[in-house]
Design brief:
globular
Length: 367
Amino acid sequence: MGNIRIAVVGIGNCASSLLQGIEYYKDKQEEEQIGLLHWDIGGYKPFAIEVVAAFDIDKRKVGKEVNEAIFERPNCTTVFCGNMPKTGVTVSMGKILDGLSEHMREYEEDYIFLASDVPESSAEEVMRILKESGAEIMVNYLPVGSEEATRFYAQCALDAGVAFVNNIPVFIASTPAWASKFEEKGIPIIGDDIKAQLGATITHRTLTDLFKKRGVKLERTYQLNTGGNTDFLNMLNRNRLKSKKESKTEAVQAVAATRLDKRDIHIGPSDYVPWQNDQKVCFVRMEGKLFGDIPMNLELRLSVEDSPNSAGVAIDSIRCCKIALERGIGGILQSPSAYFCKHPPRQFPDDEAYRMTEEFIEGKRKN
């Protein structure tokens, strides 16, 4: 069947886990695989994905072979597949725009070395690379808050006729004007903001749904997160967090029996703890009333390696995009977006979104 040819924007921890995972599962059989949502989607196994183009702005990565660049600082995620083969794909200089928060320059020695001696890529250059590489799908891993940069790459994908998987909380699929552009061109898009395999949001949603189904009135809740990767450092700039907080908050509100007043729900990144590296720690508290108006509360601590936690979901998103391309389906892929993303165009309970996605994969549902 051939491989699924992808272009990756942002060669950070998430891209590192994705690329390592593609290689890691090559030695596995279906009966021994661990940690995947699906082994086969439309005839494509997890390793049937090939990176043919890559973009970044850090001089430690730009110009390097992509499978070497994923291990460069400031990447700090767990290396679970260190023996990566050469791909022949070099990381190209991208477009900076707002992809770099100003406060990150204070940490230049450890975290960011701008490739200032290499010209930024224009839209024409990005499209040339996409077309010459034969990329079918663009995977967006830019930092949170990269509004202009995400729109730049989304437009490049549209102009090059490349499908788009938007893994960050910049609203493209869930913005009608952008959704219409992909619909009009017949190009598939999945978004927005990837929902980890077993992360803070999916756990919080599941518990909120459980409260509803068991007749417990949810009155107040918070979700606090700490981490030590570049993503958490980037999010110290609270001006970049508006869409992130909206995405995570709406993901929980959407499954509550009754929407909470904004004073009674607080969800969002909380602090950067350098020594945690890519380990994310989440604290959830939920307060409610049981039978007879009797108070109860629940507290949960979840610790996960942040980037691998999203990689398996990304592999499924990419394969769903590919089968949409093969079936001639364009525009928003509603079912995969609802199941794989925190801020899809339409929210569905996770069990319903799961069923819809299974039907989409089987060809029983258009999108």
